[in-house]
Design brief:
The chain is mostly helical. It has 14 helices and no strands.
Length: 285
C-alpha cells in the first residue's frame, strides 16, 4: 500500500499535475491494493486461517456480533474523537501563520516515522496478549507488555537523539523553506518530551483492549483527544502565549493523558477479573 501510494503520488501529482485530487486518489488506490492483496492472501492460506470464503461463513452469529459491537464501538468512538480533535488543533496552529502551520505538518510527518514502528509493535502485541488473556496466562501478559515497552523505548530514544542532534537536517528532508526550518529544534524538543509517553502507549493501551475493558479504553481515548491534545495545545499555545513552542509541546505532551491512566490501570486495577474475562465468566456460569 505504501509503495503504491508513493509511486502514484509521484505520477498523479508530479507527472499529471492533478494536485490534491491526485494525492487523494493515490491514497485510495494504495489502500485498495492492500485490501485486495489481503483477500488473495487469505484465500491462498484459507486452511491456516480456518476461513474458506463460503456463503455460510458470512452469516452473522448473534452472540459473536454482539461481542464485536461491544468491543468495537467504544474503540470507534475514541478513534473518531482523536481525529476530530486533530481538526481543531490544526485550526489553532493555522492561527499562527503559514510557517508555523507548515512546521507543524512537517513535524507530524517526522513523528510518524517512530510511531509507525511502535504501532507495529502494538499490533503484534494485540495478538499475543489476546491469546494469553484467553489462556489466562497472566504472567506472560505482564512479561510481554514489559518487553513491548522496552522495544518501543529503544526506538523512541534512538530516533529522538538523532533528530535532536540533526534538527535542521530532519526538517530539510521535507522542506527547504528556511522560515519553516527555523522551528525544527522547537518541534524536536517537544517530540522528545512526549517520547516516554509514546514508548508506553502501545503496550498499556493494547493491554486494556486485550482485557476487553473497552469503556476504559474509550474514556482514555476521549481524554487524550479533548483534554490532552486539544485543551493542552490551546492552553500552552494560545492562553499562555507561548506560540509555536507551546502548541508543539501541548500536542506532543497530550500523549501523557493516555499513557499515565493506561499505566495506572495496568499497575493498580485487578484487570484479570475485568472486561472480557468477566463477560466470559458470566456466560460460563
Amino acid at each position: 500500500a505504501s509503495v503504491t501510494n508513493i509511486v502514484l503520488d509521484l505520477l498523479f501529482t508530479g507527472l499529471f499535475g492533478w494536485g490534491v485530487a491526485g494525492a487523494a486518489l493515490a491514497t485510495v488506490i494504495g489502500q485498495a491494493v492492500s485490501v485486495i492483496y489481503s483477500v488473495l492472501f487469505l484465500i491462498k492460506h484459507k486452511e491456516e486461517f480456518y476461513f474458506d470464503f463460503k456463503k455460510g461463513e458470512f452469516r452473522p452469529v448473534k452472540g459473536n456480533a454482539g461481542l464485536l459491537l461491544k468491543l468495537g464501538l467504544p474503540l470507534m468512538i475514541s478513534g473518531s474523537a482523536i481525529n476530530i480533535s486533530g481538526l481543531f488543533v490544526a485550526r489553532l496552529v493555522n492561527q499562527l501563520g503559514v510557517s508555523v502551520s507548515a512546521a507543524f505538518g512537517v513535524g507530524q510527518k517526522l513523528s510518524q516515522i517512530p510511531n509507525i514502528l511502535t504501532h507495529a509493535v502494538g499490533q503484534a502485541l494485540a495478538a499475543i496478549l489476546g491469546q494469553n488473556m484467553g489462556a489466562r496466562q497472566f504472567s506472560r501478559v505482564r512479561r510481554t507488555v514489559g518487553v513491548s515497552i522496552l522495544i518501543c523505548g529503544v526506538i523512541q530514544i534512538i530516533f529522538n537523539v538523532l533528530c535532536l542532534s540533526f534538527a535542521e537536517f530532519s526538517f530539510r528532508i521535507f522542506t527547504q523553506d528556511e522560515s519553516v526550518i527555523a522551528y525544527a529544534m522547537s518541534w524536536n524538543i517537544a517530540m522528545a518530551i512526549g517520547a516516554a509517553a509514546m514508548s508506553c502507549m502501545p503496550g498499556f493501551l493494547t493491554h486494556i483492549q486485550a482485557v476487553g475493558d473497552t469503556r476504559v479504553s474509550m474514556a482514555i481515548g476521549l481524554a487524550d483527544a479533548f483534554v490532552g491534545r486539544l485543551l493542552l495545545t490551546w492552553l500552552l499555545g494560545i492562553v499562555a502565549g507561548l506560540g509555536a513552542t507551546g502548541l508543539f509541546m501541548g500536542f506532543t505532551g497530550g500523549a501523557y493523558l493516555s499513557a499515565i491512566p493506561a499505566m495506572c490501570y495496568y499497575l493498580f486495577v485487578p484487570w484479570e477479573k475485568r472486561g472480557l474475562n468477566k463477560t466470559l465468566s458470566e456466560d460460563a456460569a
